[in-house]
Amino acid sequence: MGxxxxxxxxxxxxxxxxxxxxxxxxxxxxxxxxxxxxPHTYCGSVDAADDEMALMFAREHFGRxxxxxxxxxxxxxxxxxxxxxxxxxxxxxxxxxRFAKGYNVGMKWREFxxxxxxxxxxxEDLREHF
Length: 130
Hints:
Elements: H1 5-8, E1 26-33, E2 41-48, H2 51-65, E3 70-75, H3 105-129
Antiparallel strand pairs: 1-2, 1-3
């Protein structure tokens, strides 16, 4: 059984679609400022067709969650970042002296308390026996 003559004239396309799989939307990162003079904080991301739509979506979505005085949106592909595997982020100078590590404060405090408890016990013991 064959196809009708109308179906024979329908072209068959075996190529992939020319539109990208993610569509026409771009991802934008959203930052909000809750008070004037305070730093902007990262809130999340929105998908939008253009910059104006991204700003509108960000105001609608993140402006409802909290009061804010300013909203920033930036395309995700415009954000430059370090690579986890290749780039090592470290301080140029050693400032480990600022951290209270290696002092064993807890161990020294326990030893002090044990010594104090022993001294108290010795006083009471001597008082009882003599």
